[in-house]
Amino acid sequence: MADFFTATVPNSCRAKGNWSRLPGLSASASIRDRRVTLTLTNPSLDSSLSLRVRFAGGARATEARASALTHSDMRATNTFADPDEVKPAAHPVRVVADGLELNLPRQAVVLVECAIT
Length: 117
Description:
This protein has strands spanning 5-8, 14-15, 26-32, 35-42, 49-55, 61-70, 89-91, 94-96, 99-104, 108-116. The protein is an all-beta fold. The strands form two sheets. The chain has a five-stranded antiparallel beta sheet, with no helix packed on it. Strands 3-4-10-6-7 form a five-stranded antiparallel beta sheet, with no helix packed on it.
């Protein structure tokens, strides 16, 4: 899987094949039946990250959707009194010629699902 996609954080560093530590970014990927699922985490309390994901081997995304789990208060929790305080919401992701582009909000986990050819 390490050779399947490349994540680039502008003005930061790049990961491909041999994973490098990406400041403020954690990622995992899986593929099944020409569908890729990415889980991306931005633990920063201060800033969002612009991200471009490129697929290796000539693979191209044909469609994508994303959802984000985040809250403006890092201590926010779901309780019996307020079970929907923190919940996933649709998140914008853009299909580009060689991959995907999206912004990871601060203190967020983003799930991206996309079909590839």
